[in-house]
Amino acid sequence: MPKRQVQAGAGEKARLELVFDKPYLLGALFGEYDQNLVAIENRLGVYIAARGQKLQIEGAAEAAARARDVLQGLYNRLAVGQQIDAGAVEAVIAMSAEPTLDGIIRHDVSEPPKVMIRTRKKTIVPRSANQGLYMEALARHELIFALGPAGTGKTYLAVAQAVSQLITGSVDRLILSRPAVEAGERLGFLPGDMKEKVDPYLRPLYDALYDTLPAEQVERRIASGEIEIAPLAFMRGRTLANAFIILDEAQNTTIAQMKMFLTRFGEGSRMVICGDPKQVDLPQPGASGLADAVERLEGIEGIAVSRFTTADVVRHPIVGRIVAAYEGPNA
To answer: Which of 154, 212, 220, 235 is the most buried if burial means most Cβ atoms within 10 Å?
Structure first.
């Protein structure tokens, strides 16, 4: 059972009240053993009391207002049929403190997201403001670079968008690729044939597929060629038309490999290139094809660049703290 560890903040105190008109949603809003309320209390330093269809929030004025917005936002998501979990609660809390692009007005978390991706297994909504911008870019642009640390949803959202477009028929194929660059290993020393050697490097792509499509559909579409998962080297010499093409771990491409991959772009295709410029495993990190491509292509019509930070990490909250620690002033 979650424990309340409320710490009152400084400043003017406030007592706010929320009244909900759909009591059947309150069980999901509060969470098992009120775990969602406890998470909001502990993160924002407020106290929340539930009385029937009413919630009272007490604490520092700004914290109480944030808690109110978070609760209203979560409730509104439930009201339009979206599901919430511990990750969604953490994400909405984080977004409640994010500035908009003008840097003045806080991101409005009290409204359901305006952009979402529908797949066979779930409807995916943004869990940070930057994810929202990225999802808009995925819907609008032909070529997108997604840059940022692990856990920010770069590849997962790209796969979800690709699956959505494959389901609706706006593309004929989904092609997922990664460079087989090893973080300390050598392919030649691994057991098995070439497929068995490279499959471990492609496993994150499989994981995202199985999270957005039923397993039998994944297997059937792979068997039919509608979904192809292959190392980057297998892309050479091809022109990929009417396809959604994703390159993951792109920071581990050389400049020549990146040029080769970009020129595979064919009629009616979309391409997403994901990577973390700070995690280059190449023998010469300064020769990363990802950094070179972004420098050359950013600003060209039809090409978008989405950048994520540690604040956008949407895995377990401790992952964000770990990434921040490794990228801090003493890194």
So the answer is: 154
